[in-house]
Amino acid sequence: ASEFFASACSDFALVPALYQVAKHKRHFTLYIGVFQACAAILYNTSHAVGFNIFLSSLQWHFINDVLALTFVCCLLIHCMGNKSENLNITLRYIAFTCAWVFKE
Questions:
Q1: Is the pLDDT of residue 8 over 80?
Q2: Start-to-end CA span in the chain (Å)
Q3: What are phi and psi of 53, to 5 degrees?
Q4: Residue 21 contacts residue 36 (beta carbons within 8 Å)
Q5: pTM listed for this prediction
Q6: Residues 44, 7 contacting (CB under 8 angstroms)
């Protein structure tokens, strides 16, 4: 129970970053961040209770890893301060694709 509680608390550590992303109207990054938080909660819950919640615990873990890596890459792209929004969009999609392919 204490492991689940610690994991759940660490999942909510993402909330301040999500607030900043929403404030800057980064919709794709916000989507990735919210989905990552949901996947993390579902993974931790599935792992703690020992049964599948829509997907297996291992599948939630995979989704969580891909989305967490994508979210970090999106935040780094935002911090780069590129003036070209088209370049930022392209880099975000490349980050998601690479995270997914390389995790596989």
A1: no
A2: 31
A3: -120, 95
A4: no
A5: 0.80
A6: yes
Residue whose entry in the numeric block shows the structure tokens 């890459």: 73
Per-residue pLDDT reduced to its tens digit, 48-80: 888 888 998 899 999 999 998 998 898 899 888
The residues with which 53 forms a beta bridge, in sequence order, are 55
**CA–CA gap between residue 99 and residue 104 (Å, rounded):** 9
The CA–CA distances, whole Å, from 70 to 1, 33, 52, 55, 102 equal 29, 9, 25, 21, 11
Which residues are bridge partners to 55 per DSSP? 53
Sequence length of the chain is 104
- Residue 51 token pair: 């049964």
H-type alpha helices, 1-104: 2-11, 15-23, 27-49, 57-80, 85-103
- The amino acid occupying position 103 is K
